[in-house]
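Memo to structure team: turn this sequence into C-alpha coordinates by end of day. - J.P.
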Amino acid sequence: MTRELLRSTLAETIALHRTVMDGDLAPVFAAAAAIAGAVATGGKLLVFGNGGSAADAQHVAAELVGRFERERRGIAAVALTTDASVVTSIANDYGFERVFARQVEALGARGDVAFGISTSGASGNIVAGLGAAAARGLTTVALTGKDGGAVGRSAAIHINVPSPSAARVQEVHRTLLHVICDLVEQSVA
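Reply from structure team:
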Protein backbone atom coordinates (compact mmCIF):
# COMPACT_ATOMS: atom_id res chain seq x y z
CA MET A 1 0.00 0.00 0.00
CA THR A 2 2.75 2.49 0.88
CA ARG A 3 4.67 1.67 -2.30
CA GLU A 4 1.50 2.15 -4.38
CA LEU A 5 0.85 5.55 -2.74
CA LEU A 6 4.38 6.65 -3.62
CA ARG A 7 4.09 5.40 -7.19
CA SER A 8 0.67 6.96 -7.78
CA THR A 9 1.76 10.32 -6.29
CA LEU A 10 4.87 10.40 -8.46
CA ALA A 11 2.83 9.41 -11.52
CA GLU A 12 0.31 12.19 -10.86
CA THR A 13 2.94 14.89 -10.41
CA ILE A 14 4.89 13.71 -13.46
CA ALA A 15 1.68 13.80 -15.53
CA LEU A 16 0.88 17.33 -14.33
CA HIS A 17 4.44 18.49 -15.03
CA ARG A 18 4.05 17.06 -18.54
CA THR A 19 0.71 18.83 -19.02
CA VAL A 20 2.30 22.14 -18.08
CA MET A 21 5.40 21.44 -20.18
CA ASP A 22 3.23 20.75 -23.23
CA GLY A 23 1.08 23.85 -22.62
CA ASP A 24 1.69 27.55 -23.13
CA LEU A 25 5.00 28.40 -21.44
CA ALA A 26 5.04 32.04 -22.60
CA PRO A 27 3.70 33.33 -19.25
CA VAL A 28 6.61 31.70 -17.39
CA PHE A 29 9.11 33.52 -19.60
CA ALA A 30 7.08 36.75 -19.35
CA ALA A 31 7.14 36.58 -15.54
CA ALA A 32 10.89 36.02 -15.47
CA ALA A 33 11.43 38.85 -17.96
CA ALA A 34 9.27 41.21 -15.90
CA ILE A 35 11.22 40.43 -12.73
CA ALA A 36 14.57 40.72 -14.52
CA GLY A 37 13.48 44.02 -16.06
CA ALA A 38 12.39 45.41 -12.70
CA VAL A 39 15.67 44.39 -11.09
CA ALA A 40 17.69 45.88 -13.95
CA THR A 41 16.06 49.27 -13.37
CA GLY A 42 16.40 49.26 -9.57
CA GLY A 43 13.02 47.72 -8.84
CA LYS A 44 12.06 44.78 -6.68
CA LEU A 45 9.84 41.73 -6.47
CA LEU A 46 7.01 41.63 -3.92
CA VAL A 47 5.78 38.03 -3.61
CA PHE A 48 2.92 36.69 -1.51
CA GLY A 49 0.58 33.79 -0.89
CA ASN A 50 -1.29 31.92 1.84
CA GLY A 51 -0.34 28.67 3.57
CA GLY A 52 1.95 26.57 1.38
CA SER A 53 2.01 29.41 -1.13
CA ALA A 54 3.29 31.71 1.64
CA ALA A 55 6.15 29.26 2.11
CA ASP A 56 6.76 29.31 -1.65
CA ALA A 57 6.83 33.13 -1.57
CA GLN A 58 9.45 33.03 1.17
CA HIS A 59 11.43 30.42 -0.77
CA VAL A 60 11.50 32.58 -3.91
CA ALA A 61 12.62 35.65 -1.98
CA ALA A 62 15.38 33.64 -0.31
CA GLU A 63 16.62 32.26 -3.64
CA LEU A 64 16.78 35.73 -5.19
CA VAL A 65 18.18 37.71 -2.26
CA GLY A 66 20.70 34.96 -1.55
CA ARG A 67 21.51 32.85 -4.58
CA PHE A 68 19.88 30.10 -6.57
CA GLU A 69 22.51 28.25 -8.66
CA ARG A 70 25.33 30.74 -9.14
CA GLU A 71 27.18 33.54 -7.43
CA ARG A 72 25.89 37.01 -8.36
CA ARG A 73 24.76 40.20 -6.70
CA GLY A 74 21.69 40.06 -4.50
CA ILE A 75 18.31 40.61 -6.14
CA ALA A 76 15.73 42.75 -4.34
CA ALA A 77 12.83 40.48 -3.38
CA VAL A 78 10.49 40.67 -0.40
CA ALA A 79 8.02 38.01 0.75
CA LEU A 80 5.03 39.87 2.18
CA THR A 81 4.24 36.86 4.35
CA THR A 82 7.19 36.94 6.72
CA ASP A 83 6.62 39.78 9.17
CA ALA A 84 4.11 38.45 11.69
CA SER A 85 3.70 41.85 13.35
CA VAL A 86 2.85 43.55 10.05
CA VAL A 87 0.54 40.77 8.87
CA THR A 88 -1.35 40.53 12.17
CA SER A 89 -1.65 44.29 12.69
CA ILE A 90 -3.07 44.76 9.19
CA ALA A 91 -5.41 41.78 9.64
CA ASN A 92 -6.57 43.16 12.99
CA ASP A 93 -6.99 46.78 11.87
CA TYR A 94 -8.16 46.34 8.26
CA GLY A 95 -9.16 42.68 7.86
CA PHE A 96 -7.31 39.69 6.45
CA GLU A 97 -8.39 40.62 2.92
CA ARG A 98 -6.03 43.64 3.11
CA VAL A 99 -2.84 41.98 4.45
CA PHE A 100 -1.10 42.06 1.07
CA ALA A 101 -2.75 45.13 -0.46
CA ARG A 102 -1.67 47.33 2.43
CA GLN A 103 1.94 46.13 2.17
CA VAL A 104 1.95 46.67 -1.60
CA GLU A 105 0.68 50.21 -1.01
CA ALA A 106 3.48 50.80 1.50
CA LEU A 107 6.36 49.09 -0.30
CA GLY A 108 5.49 48.91 -3.99
CA ALA A 109 6.53 51.41 -6.62
CA ARG A 110 5.98 51.77 -10.35
CA GLY A 111 8.38 49.40 -12.08
CA ASP A 112 8.26 46.74 -9.34
CA VAL A 113 6.64 43.33 -9.79
CA ALA A 114 3.87 41.98 -7.55
CA PHE A 115 3.68 38.18 -7.70
CA GLY A 116 0.68 36.46 -6.10
CA ILE A 117 0.59 32.69 -5.60
CA SER A 118 -2.69 30.82 -5.08
CA THR A 119 -3.32 27.11 -5.57
CA SER A 120 -7.09 27.70 -5.60
CA GLY A 121 -7.13 30.89 -7.64
CA ALA A 122 -9.80 32.12 -5.23
CA SER A 123 -7.81 33.91 -2.50
CA GLY A 124 -9.44 37.28 -1.91
CA ASN A 125 -6.36 38.77 -0.27
CA ILE A 126 -4.23 37.84 -3.29
CA VAL A 127 -6.78 39.48 -5.61
CA ALA A 128 -6.71 42.61 -3.43
CA GLY A 129 -2.90 42.64 -3.39
CA LEU A 130 -2.71 42.35 -7.17
CA GLY A 131 -5.37 45.07 -7.52
CA ALA A 132 -3.40 47.43 -5.27
CA ALA A 133 -0.28 46.66 -7.29
CA ALA A 134 -1.94 47.38 -10.63
CA ALA A 135 -3.29 50.67 -9.26
CA ARG A 136 0.27 51.71 -8.30
CA GLY A 137 1.76 50.78 -11.67
CA LEU A 138 3.43 47.50 -10.70
CA THR A 139 3.55 44.61 -13.14
CA THR A 140 1.29 41.87 -11.77
CA VAL A 141 1.94 38.13 -11.99
CA ALA A 142 -0.29 35.31 -10.75
CA LEU A 143 0.71 31.68 -10.28
CA THR A 144 -2.43 29.62 -9.80
CA GLY A 145 -4.02 26.19 -9.78
CA LYS A 146 -7.43 24.88 -10.83
CA ASP A 147 -8.69 27.22 -13.60
CA GLY A 148 -6.90 30.30 -12.22
CA GLY A 149 -10.08 31.88 -10.90
CA ALA A 150 -10.25 35.50 -9.79
CA VAL A 151 -6.53 35.55 -8.97
CA GLY A 152 -5.57 34.64 -12.52
CA ARG A 153 -7.98 37.22 -13.94
CA SER A 154 -6.43 39.89 -11.65
CA ALA A 155 -2.93 39.67 -13.13
CA ALA A 156 -1.32 40.95 -16.29
CA ILE A 157 0.73 37.73 -16.49
CA HIS A 158 -1.02 34.50 -15.49
CA ILE A 159 0.74 31.16 -15.07
CA ASN A 160 -1.77 28.37 -14.45
CA VAL A 161 -1.25 24.79 -13.32
CA PRO A 162 -4.58 23.19 -14.24
CA SER A 163 -5.34 20.67 -11.49
CA PRO A 164 -7.86 20.49 -8.64
CA SER A 165 -5.24 18.93 -6.32
CA ALA A 166 -3.53 21.56 -4.16
CA ALA A 167 -0.66 19.18 -3.43
CA ARG A 168 0.05 18.42 -7.09
CA VAL A 169 -0.30 22.12 -8.00
CA GLN A 170 2.20 23.09 -5.30
CA GLU A 171 4.70 20.53 -6.62
CA VAL A 172 4.54 22.02 -10.10
CA HIS A 173 4.52 25.57 -8.70
CA ARG A 174 7.84 24.85 -6.98
CA THR A 175 9.35 23.66 -10.27
CA LEU A 176 8.09 26.72 -12.15
CA LEU A 177 9.33 29.06 -9.41
CA HIS A 178 12.77 27.44 -9.63
CA VAL A 179 12.79 27.98 -13.40
CA ILE A 180 11.84 31.64 -12.90
CA CYS A 181 14.60 32.05 -10.30
CA ASP A 182 17.09 30.48 -12.69
CA LEU A 183 16.06 32.74 -15.58
CA VAL A 184 16.18 35.87 -13.42
CA GLU A 185 19.54 34.87 -11.99
CA GLN A 186 20.97 34.39 -15.48
CA SER A 187 19.93 37.95 -16.36
CA VAL A 188 21.93 39.49 -13.49
CA ALA A 189 25.54 40.38 -14.14
